[in-house]
Amino acid sequence: MIFSKRAYFIFTFTMLLLIVTSYFTVDKSISLYFIEHADIYKQFGKTASMLGESHWYIGIAILGTVYSTYIKKNELYKSRFLFLLYANIFSGFISLVLKMIFGRLRPWKLENGEDSFGFLITQNPEFSFVQNIEYHISMMIQNSTHYTSFPSGHATTSFAVFTFMSIIAPKYIYLWLSITLLGAGSRILANDHFVGDVLAGALVGILSTLFICYKLKIYPHKSI
Which of 47, 120, 160, 209 is the most buried (most CB within 10 A)? Predict the structure, then answer.
């Protein structure tokens, strides 16, 4: 294990606290600001969001694995590419499952004077618990894109790759962090995610990658 159990607990607890605090304090106001100034920020956000698209990293990982396994055999690089592949697949799967479970409305539900904010299960307080569950499932089937804001999949990927790069090349950690914050933060500028969604994506991406690192027995001191 890279860190102590206590360090994992403190990190997870702190991130969860930030996510909850963000939801009740700044999520809505920050998204409304970027909605109002979409002409300035949205296109840049959409472009920079490409940094958080998992298919780039999965593709690189697959090509790298094939190359280091069959063309120019190198066990060290093979293990690294497999690490990158598994980290992206696993973190992406966890993120997708959480999206379906939480069913959070996207920021664009605040556009054009609308005031739809929160989670599907909280949209109809007059419903019973069972009715809210049925409504949640129904809306996810009809148009899941509108209700999969939490956590941010792009942020999950960005922080998964950040954790991966920080483990194999820690001396460039500030470079990786800068690229990661650009890719993850762009989701807020693009009006596709709230601050809390990005924080949740960071939590999922980091913990998922550390879990894969532990399972694959990748050691941080073996860096480039």
Answer: 160
